[in-house]
Amino acid sequence: MQFASRRQHVVLATLFCVALPASLLAGARQPPRPSAPEAQKRTARIRGLVVAADSGKPIRRAQVRLNSATAGSWAATTDANGAFEFSSLPAARYALTAAKAGFVTIALGQKNPSDPGRPTFELRDGQAKDDAQIALPRGGVVAGRVVDEFGDPVVDATVQAFQSEYMQGIRRILALRGVTSNDIGQFRLYGLAPGKYYIAATLRASDTFPPVDPSTPPTEVMRGGSGFAPTFFPGTAVAADAQP
Predict the structure, then answer these.
(1) What is the pLDDT of residue 216?
(2) Is 151 helix (H, G, I), strand (E, B) or coil?
(3) 3-class SS of residue 154
(4) Can you tell me the distance from the alpha carbon of 106 to that of 104, in angstroms, rounded to the nearest whole number?
(5) What radius of gyration do the chain's Cα atoms show?
(6) CB-based contacts of 123, cutoff 8 Å, min separation 6
(7) CA-based, 20 to 30 A from 170: which of 118, 152, 153, 214?
């Protein structure tokens, strides 16, 4: 008897729900209408070109990124004429960067790749910025070989380019790019911006380099777990003896 009573209660509740006015059910399914300010968003646009800084020729298939701290981020690839476009954008402050293998990544309005921060610009509702041009400088290349004490090639060594910078008042080295040596010990680091670099190699990824700038003490010898110590150019495990 108790079970039957529960079942009857469920049926009555179902009938009651079906009997609700259709207008109320239809209203519940409708999403809230956007307010007037929200309906005006995403009306801005930006178009432009990515070219080589040395020749002015367009760069096809360059990766372009548009970022905003408040609105989000977008990505595009330049066409055969080096052109790109971002449309239906909300009003916000943006930073625009372009990248391509063999070139140095740079932002719109950035004069030097080493300049701190990324320049930003503002787009208002309905604004069209159609003159954005980014000139990518060609990257520098450091190539060479990794060999052991007998002059034999070291295969699959990790070779990295470092630059020094001040962090919290301490001068440290920062790894920028890394590659792996091939079957004859050769390596090629490309896309490097103009500047001073330290080049170092290690045979195991777990072997690390000291974070302190090689040009400053301490002058400890680094130890490696593979039988080879992590080594700076021109061939020293003593950090202070490294040559840029």
Answers:
(1) 58
(2) coil
(3) coil
(4) 6
(5) 30
(6) 44, 46, 89, 91, 92, 93, 94, 129
(7) 118
For domain 140-241, the question of CATH label 3.30.565.10 is answered with no
Q: Where are the domains of the chain?
A: 40-136, 140-241
Both tokens of residue 164? 């020094």
- Encoded tokens for 17: 């729900």
Provide the 8-state DSSP code for 193: P
Q: Identify the CA nearest to 159 among candidates 190, 189, 201, 192.
A: 201
Q: Could you give the CA distance from residue 119 to residue 165 in angstroms, rounded to a whole number?
A: 21
Checking if the pLDDT of 136 tops 70, the result is yes
- Report the DSSP beta bridge partners of residue 218: none
pLDDT of residue 219: 44
- On the question of a common fold for 40-136 and 140-241, the answer reads yes
Residue 88 contacts residue 72 (beta carbons within 8 Å): no
**CATH architecture assignment, domain 40-136:** Sandwich (2.60)
CB atoms within 10 A of CB 188: 12
pLDDT digits (tens, 9 = 90+) for 174-208: 888 899 999 999 999 998 988 899 999 998 755 55
Residue 215: count other Cβ atoms within 10 Å of its Cβ.
15
DSSP element (H, E) containing 188: strand 186-192
Higher-confidence residue of 217 and 116: namely 116
- Can you give the pLDDT at residue 226? 57
% of the chain at pLDDT higher than 90: 52
Residue 19 DSSP SS3: coil
Peptide bond into 90 cis (omega under 30): no
